[in-house]
Amino acid sequence: MAVKLGYENVYRDPKGYPEWHAKGLPVESAPAGLSAKASEPKEPGPLYGWAMLWTLLGIFAGGMALNLTPCVYPLIPITVSYFGGQSGKGRGRLIAHGICYIGGLSLTNSLLGVIAALTGGLMGAMLQNPLVLGVIAAILVFFASSLFGFWELRLPGGLTRAASKSYTGYFGTLFMGMTLGVVAAPCIGPFVLGLLTWVAGMGSPWLGFIVFFTLSLGLGFPLFFLAIFSGQIEKLPRSGEWMLWVRKLMGWILVGMAAYFIRPVLPKSPGLFLLAAVALSAGLHLGWIDRTQPGFRLFGWLRRVAGILGLVIATLLIGSWLMRGPGVSWQPYSDQVSSEARILKKPVIIDFSADWCAPCRELDEVTFHDPDIVKQAERDFIMVKVDLTRKGNPVHERLLRRYGVKGVPTVVFLGRDGKERRELRLIDFLPADQFLVRMAEAKKVTAQVDR
Fold first, then answer.
1. What is the DSSP track for 254-313?
2. Closest CA to 435 of 355, 352, 360, 370
3. Which of 151, 283, 408, 411 is most buried by a 10 A CB count?
């Protein structure tokens, strides 16, 4: 399910396209017997493909890292001891208890994710408002400040005591998993609430479920593994100040999410510099400025890796900006531009985009800055940009209805006569080499008309 933002979805993934279309080839290149209708796109969620995979891997890793916070880490011996009491009943029943534990944890968190996404669907229509984006970023920074130690999240004592009760059997194991988040709320609560804000902004219940299910797997897997191999518990590092460093790492992740939300409000270059500044600050703080004493030998190595990683990310962001050449010269749509294109017998490329759309920015910063594309666009095409960051423009509304645009990014290719070549339409990020294939096909159509 895609996120509805006023005119359109945040973006859509052409998973419905066959393989030849995904590689940048038009529908005419399809094998015989398959019609153009077979290649019409399907609407997926706002994360897709490699972006979905890497995001979920990062969330899984974040869930595992939450086990190292001061509120969860002391629970590991208690949890392992509980499972150890079940070990006499056979390895099969021990595994069943472990599945119940992770199932209870996943049930609670996934339900929170779905609820946040459902209630956040209304938020989606407001994400074009800079004030809303600013509020979301402020909330994330507020929760991050808790992880940095400026304030402590505390739940009512009655709720904490109820969650600490123990029950027997599989229900007891399930209950332990369901209430882990309540017991550990002072440490993991701000991170989970920040993630809930992010999920609510996307408004996809399916994505909310999968994100928090993955988080639960990351949080519960180390406990489950240690419970099955309980003898390894003696080799765990002792609790200490290093766990406060892990909390600060989670805090910087929330600050990075805040910078991501506020970036569309800023001009392109300042937005990029903001992300680089967050990565640089996180690297310096976590790697060198923070004076947390290591509790075990590996901690010093982990701290240096985190610091270097932050510096590398900042360098890559700034480097990509410095090495980027001039981009495509766009002009706003007007009837005069359309008439000029027909007089000059040039095809037209109309880019429907928005500042808050991640693949739109990727198209603009990567594909539309490629030297070959810039050269061909200047020589052979009329390039038109329709900016849908703000709604209410009557010309844009008319174009959306005319071309049936339902999401961004949408790149429309028009022939000399002003009619769209529907088979060339693009609704997702496409690398420069594949985009050049579509530009070549558009020029072929024009050449055939001229003959």
1. HHHHHHHHHGGGS-HHHHHHHHHHHHHHHHHIIIII--PPPSSHHHHHHHHHHHHHHHHH
2. 370
3. 408
C-alpha distances out from residue 73 to 70, 188, 189, 244, 314, Å: 6, 11, 15, 11, 31
Instruction: Confirm if 346 and 416 have CB atoms less than 8 A apart.
Output: yes
Task: Please give the helix or strand (H or E) that residue 383 lies within, else none.
Answer: strand 382-387
pLDDT digits (tens, 9 = 90+) for 260-307: 878 878 887 898 899 999 999 999 999 999 988 776 678 889 899 999
The pairs formed by 426-429 with CB atoms below 8 angstroms and a separation of 24 or more are 427/11, 427/12, 427/14, 427/41, 428/11, 428/12, 428/13, 428/14, 428/359, 429/359, 429/362, 429/363, 429/366, 429/367
Q: What does the domain layout of the chain look like in residue ranges?
A: 4-44+326-450, 49-237
pLDDT of residue 389: 80
Tokens of 120: 């956040």
Amino acid at 425: R
pTM above threshold 0.70? no
CATH number for the domain formed by residue range(s) 4-44+326-450: 3.40.30.10
For residue 138, is pLDDT > 50?
A: yes
The pLDDT confidence band at residue 14, using thresholds 50, 70 and 90, is very low
Query: Residue 423: enclosing H or E segment and its boundaries?
Result: none
pLDDT greater than 80 at residue 240: no
pLDDT at 243 over 90: no
Closest Cα partner for 243 from 304, 283, 296?
Answer: 296
Return contacts of 291-295, CB within 8 angstroms, 24+ apart: 292/241, 292/242, 292/244, 292/245, 293/240, 293/241, 293/242, 294/242, 295/237, 295/238, 295/239, 295/240, 295/241, 295/242
Q: Which single residue is written with the structure tokens 């933002």?
A: 5
Report the distance separating Cα 110 and Cα 418, nearest Å.
Answer: 48
